[in-house]
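Hi Q.,

Before the meeting this afternoon, I wanted you to have the inosinic acid prediction in hand. No need to reply - just skim if you have a minute. The sequence and ligand are here:
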Amino acid sequence: MKIDLLLGLQWGDEGKGKIVDVLTKNYDIIARFQGGPNAGHTLIFDGKKHVLHTIPSGIFHKTAMNVVGNGVVIDPVIFKKELENLDVHNIDYTSKLLISRKAHLILPTHRLLDAASETSKGKAKIGSTLKGIGPTYMDKTGRNGMRVGDLELDNWKEKYEALTKKHIKMLHFFDVQIEYNLEELEAEFCKGIDKLRQLQFIDSEEYLNNAIKNNKTILAEGAQGSLLDIDFGTYPFVTSSNTTAAGACTGLGVAPNKIGDVFGIFKAYTTRVGSGPFPTELFDKDGETMAKVGHEFGATTGRARRCGWLDLVALKYAIQVNGVTQLMMMKGDVLSGFDTLKIATSYNYKGKEITHLPYNIEPENVSVNYTEFKGWQADLTKMTHKDQLPKNLLEYVAFIEKETEVPIKIVSVGPDRLQTIDR
Ligand code: IMP
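Predicted structure with the ligand bound:
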């Protein structure tokens, strides 16, 4: 059996959590492969909303096993809160949630370093979620990090203290002052570690490869989006991990020839939170409508998301680097009511019209050419079958399919599990 991947094709917040939740019934195992509590995966069912940050979105299903892979970074403080939220709903996570020993830990001082680094950047700041993601991955690649497996060693505290000491010294290099109370932060961290220890730590690459051998079905769940990928995103305004398909191989320890379907999730329009270029961004009433109707506020930070038209140049790029085999279009309902819709189909770049994503997409380098579509007025949120979808929406969808050469298998018409139309 091969392992299927599910990832975001834009700048995150595409609705991956909802689709993982919808698809979980088809899988034995859901495995997160990168990112950490910078993610916010929202699931709505039975009239309740749940937001997960680090825990895979299959946790609410009775039978699925959930694995936090080696590519993920875990903040024990936030993880504890996520587990406590599951306690409220009587979810038995101790048997269904497995943690890779090779996953790295976010220390309190990683968060402080994130804050110091962002503040010192001034106007050039990335707009980080400030969850310590960048500094933790820096320690990973710098070969200084602390991993979950270290917690099984007698000397884990010594390791922790040495790294914390180093971070405190590093904080002095920044020309900004970050206020903190280390004792309080450490007390919280230790409580988080105690909670984390209630879970099973595993050699996840061994577990997953055995599962593949034994014909178990596995879905790898990505976080953030392809345009935030450390290599292929809009660098430096990106996150610090590989959010694209290759990240699933390194973040879970599965070989490329074990990858099956790649599900690419995208919104019918585009959003971005934080800084960085965004060629189709809108600064007018249309953008305001998308933000309002689409409730475009970050699930992790509550920040307002920037909104704009769908960008096919960027979408095709993301489909290419990920090898997407099936598309899923989210938030189609948010576009109801527009007279005219636009899709970016090419850029003007250095005096030429181009259809691929160039190295630099800052506004001074690119302008956008759009194709216009007739909008639809019908409220989609109560629709349950593909035959109910308005003609103009089907034309919008058909155009994207023709341009990308990938079928759109799901059209999502609302946040609830049930508001999902299979095509
Ligand atoms: P960091 O990963 O928290 O350092 O943030 C780096 C950039 O990625 C910032 O622009 C964030 O707003 C963005 N980002 C990180 N995680 C997410 C996410 O889950 N959804 C959307 N944007 C994100």
